[in-house]
Design goal:
- This protein has about 180 residues and is an alpha/beta fold.
- About 40% of the residues lie in helices and about 20% in strands.
- The protein contains six helices and seven strands; from the N terminus they run βαβαβαβααβαββ.
- The protein has a seven-stranded mixed beta sheet with strand order 3-2-4-5-1-6-7, with helices on both faces.
- Helix 5 runs parallel beside helix 6.
- The longest helix is centred in the C-terminal third of the chain and has 20 residues.
- The protein starts with 10 loop residues before the first strand and ends with a strand.
Length: about 180
């Protein structure tokens, strides 16, 4: 499957899937096949369960990765990597989106700024993002806002990405 994927010298790839679908592992393997790179972790540990999830991801990473923990300033972080000639993996966009929603940032501007980087970045970027809009409509406005913005964000990034992969049960499906 991934023989058809090519991480070019620059450009975006977005790996989508549900929670525990295998999307992060797939994205990590994709970048490791070209020698590793920068791992931009957007999650924050606010409870024991999230701390456990973060630890699993950290333990899986080897010497091929340089980790940057940045929950909010994703655009600035990516811009700071220009000229380094190594791919970056962002895991995950939906946690980044949660962080900017909770900080009352201008979500549309943040997402648009991220998408605009596709034209100026000189290294490949692989984004991991949850596909969250396939279930029941939540009963609270914050959850509905999150789902709406997540869908919009994924659509906008897919539009500017060279590759779009959907992972189901650990099996990648090339969408674009």
């Amino acid at each position: 499957m991934d023989k058809y994927l090519n991480l070019k010298k620059s450009g975006f790839t977005i790996v989508l899937g549900g929670q525990r679908s295998g999307k992060s592992l797939f994205a990590e393997n994709l970048v490791e096949k070209v020698g590793g790179g920068f791992y931009i972790a957007t999650s924050e540990s606010h409870d024991n369960e999230m701390a456990s999830r973060i630890l699993i991801h950290q333990e899986r990473r080897g010497e091929l990765w340089q980790t940057i923990e940045e929950p909010v300033l994703l655009n600035d972080t990516l811009l700071s990597l220009k000229g380094r000639k190594k791919p970056a993996l962002v895991d995950c966009l939906t946690l980044w989106l949660t962080n900017i929603i909770l900080l009352n940032k201008d979500i549309e501007k943040e997402v648009d700024d991220l998408c605009s980087l596709a034209a100026s970045i000189d290294f490949p970027v692989v984004f991991v993002s949850n596909e969250v809009g396939q279930g029941i409509i939540p009963d609270n406005s914050l959850a509905r806002e999150f789902i709406d913005w997540s869908g919009k964000m994924n659509q906008k990034l897919a539009d500017v990405s060279d590759n779009v992969i959907f992972v189901t049960a650990g099996i990648p499906h090339i969408i674009k």
